[in-house]
# Entry
Amino acid sequence: MKTKAGLWIDHRKANIVTVTDKGEEMGLIVSKVEKQPRRSGDSPLKGPYEPHQVPAQDSLQRTRTEHLNIYYDAVIASVRDAESILIFGPGEAKGELKERLEKNGLGGRIVGIETADKMTDRQIAAKVRRHFLK
# Structure
């Protein structure tokens, strides 16, 4: 059996299961993308609102994009040697990763993309095992 990889991904983390002849390994990659941008300084309830306390929207988007690029590059590096890649997860991240894999010449290795809610590590590993042992 050659290396096969399955991963559950969203914008916050990727749980990666690699299956080989030697067994199964599980890895975790955590992104630095913030869920909600935070403002610095006093809260509006404690002090006056000042525009310089809230970063510009384009600055926030640029930072988010940079963090996502680093995150997706790390995920791609961890599955680069896999012959087959199964991607599943709840949101847009799986589609974004698919596009990045295709740009890196790895799109032909994708064997499936599925929508899945939050899962435990054991559920993720079992899903990957079931998919590749069919």
In short: The chain has one domain: 4-34+55-132. The CA atoms of residues 10 and 91 lie 6 Å apart.
